[in-house]
Amino acid sequence: MQNCLIIAEAGVNHNGSLEIAKRLIEIAADAGVDVVKFQTFKASNIVSSIAKKADYQKENMKYDTNDSQFSMLKKLELTHSDHIMLIEHCKKHNINFLSTAFDLESIDMLVGFGLEQYKIPSGEITNLPYLQKIGKLKKEIIISTGMSTLEEVEDAISVLMENGTERKKITVLHCNTEYPTPMQDVNLRAMLTLKQRLNTKIGYSDHTLGIEVPVAAVVLGAQVIEKHFTLDRNMEGPDHLASLEPDELKAMVNAIRNIELALSGNGEKEPSSSEIKNKTIARKSIHLKSSLPAGHIITEQDLEMKRPGDGISPMQINEVLGSTIKEQLPQEHKLSFKDLK
Fold it and tell me: Is there a smaller number of Cβ atoms within 10 Å at the N or the C end of the chain?
């Protein structure tokens, strides 16, 4: 089974600090994820001055009384030089760098870094100019589908393909854009609908609390898992509350890799190499309840089934019943066909 690509979403959980961003890279690398992802945007390009914060942003930033989305995002921008330093830090720690562009100018910035993979966030799935620009890159694309209908996702895929991206290069992530997502709103089976209807690779971008849902998504066939993480869930910021802390991120990665191993068999129901040695220990053979003299004809009352299982199988009891003992045998003797005539 091909390993699921695990993306640790640092997003804006660096709180505008390059040092925190670097620490997040180190934590992601230590957890064993494949990719650490940030967000690339210019606040003035993506939000108007009058746009209000989302409810979850207000809740997660309760100490920031300014209701402006612009004010919040402006503090979370990463500069061109910040990106260069983060990319170098990823190389140093042997982890892949990825970032989500939220505007056309930011796409150009990421192109300048020579990225081979691009992530489309849920909010841009109805942004035609954005989709056209990404599609023309003809690169590997991962697209989140929070807040979307199936028809909107199909339209977005069509735009990408009309602009040059091959379907085989597109991975569609089922997603719910509420932070944190209530369990009853996950609708994880929709991921399978996306696979069936779109004929693309599928995955899951998770905003629930905990690690159960992304692990379940892998069981259902997710080829990409994306999950927010943070240094500390109690930090001030829009996404910290719905993020994993370092130990939890590591636990999620371990759980996913274990699930992949568990799913990696050939599908045949047969003894595994590790359990064959236990067959004789756990199974039973036909034994004698008491000592029997030579010439005794065996009845069911003479027999008992006991471990170990390296003698005559209880499944062959009918071949034993009515047989004659060749010579006297002791109590608890493990029968073999050599004892019988």
Answer: C
